[in-house]
Amino acid sequence: MTKEQLVQQIQEKSSFLCVGLDPDLQKIPAHLRDLEDPFFAFCKAIIDHTKDYCVAYKPNTAFFEARGAAGWQSLEKTIAYLNETCPNHFIIADAKRGDIGNTATQYARAFFEQMDCDAVTVAPYMGRDSVEPFLAFEKRFCVLLALTSNQGAKDFQTTREEAPLYEEVLTTSQTYAHSERLMYVVGATKAEYLERIRQLVPASFLLIPGVGAQGGKLDEVCAAGMNKEVGLLVNSSRGIIYASSAEDFAQVAGEQARVLQQQMAEELKKQRVFS
Amino acid sequence: MTKEQLVQQIQEKSSFLCVGLDPDLQKIPAHLRDLEDPFFAFCKAIIDHTKDYCVAYKPNTAFFEARGAAGWQSLEKTIAYLNETCPNHFIIADAKRGDIGNTATQYARAFFEQMDCDAVTVAPYMGRDSVEPFLAFEKRFCVLLALTSNQGAKDFQTTREEAPLYEEVLTTSQTYAHSERLMYVVGATKAEYLERIRQLVPASFLLIPGVGAQGGKLDEVCAAGMNKEVGLLVNSSRGIIYASSAEDFAQVAGEQARVLQQQMAEELKKQRVFS
Description:
Chains A, B: It is an enzyme of class 4 (lyase). Chains A, B: Residues 16-253 form the Orotidine 5'-phosphate decarboxylase domain. The structure is a homodimer. The first copy, chain A, is of the alpha/beta class. The first copy, chain A, has helices at 3-13, 38-50, 61-65, 68-85, 101-114, 128-135, 153-156, 165-173, 194-200, 218-225, 238-241, 249-271, and strands at 17-21, 56-59, 90-97, 119-122, 141-147, 182-186, 206-208, 232-236. Chain A has one domain (3-188, 200-271): TIM Barrel (Alpha-Beta Barrel). The first copy, chain A, has twelve helices and eight strands. In chain A, strand 4 (119-122), helix 6 (128-135) and strand 5 form a beta-alpha-beta unit. In chain A, helix 2 packs across helix 12 (249-271) and helix 10 (218-225) packs across helix 12. The radius of gyration of chain A is 18 Å and the shape is globular. Chains A and B meet through helix 3, helix 4, strand 3, helix 5 and helix 6 of A and helix 3, helix 4, strand 3, helix 5 and helix 6 of B.
């Protein structure tokens, strides 16, 4: 998918919602647990009921890997189902990979060729030759960790007052080949940093987790983070997929997604992006 | 496996060699490519011929993932075979994972519980709550990226003269709960940094890739990096597993491993670790 196609989807749906798919056997509804492939059944139902309200899905590979090869198969099935039924949705493998040259290319092949995802999340620690192999794929994106929303972010990302590590990641990565295919993870609990981040990467899409459960506020995020192409994908995982653990979980998930979509439609009007 | 058991293995074999398993369909011998599971066949033959000369194996998950669910099955089979035939070898999943709390626990479960690996490589970017979930598992280890051997390492790891990022990673991570179960990746091409690193983490094992192919020298690494329990695992991947692409590839791999083991035995004598 191209960035222009993503922006068009956002405009058509008045939504920049990304739904995170973190299937957990302890949390999915009891009536699914004994199925042959409970993770796929769960994700499929969530997708069917939320797809009208979101423009992106973000399966978290860790949850699938925790079930071994069977989990990896559920992941492949989920992504194949997305490509089949939601061809205009942006699919982000939340894999947080990061390794050198040839190994990075293997990861890129796993997610872009084997599974046909549009993007993969990548950790920046190893620098240029761990990121550029992902950027070499046309119409695919590398979502680089910049400023994350967890407590541990302060260990390394923000220790320096002047040019903290996350700023260094933003500016240095913009010099990489095909940096136009870079997006960045920016935790919404750090809304106060968003203005600065927008100065450093004015054109890049930001993937924002943590609105809701982790306390980020949508209006503050939009005021500080939107650019003239929206430039935001706001992710919600648990707040949608685990809103109910009863048999109606998928309907409730759809309802939660719709509530967020309506808030986003309001923000798009307020920020006058498409007007 | 405990650290004491690992040290005992090193002493018994006079070897601190780790063999990296990076199976690549383009590089494995032609006669294996049409087998039902070429990756497992390749890894099994390599293991059978090198196990007497090494104390650790490091399967690189990227190469397996690039073949999708089938590749993940090959990885599971390879690790099961290692646990069955080499119960005293230390198994490192070279996965370079790194994500927050609950997600990190899922990754730890994938590699420690589903597959029964002894260790997994982890990227430090997200800080404490992305590392401690791995350290919570007894007799398992988290091998944290510190100073890597690739070109891109200079993008972030060594940019500052004073307290560069890799030093910050070493010292901060030592404050994490169960830091006695931390090891660190230190590229051997950076042998000049090893003395400083030993000051910062005197007791930790270091996983050293890049001796050989990437130009690090074993004697320099040992002189600067060994501690009183050896404290080093030196990895070789391509130099062993792709030493030959003919039908005798496994024998040649074994021979290469033996040459390295003998060099290591010399170094152990020279450094008088066990005497």
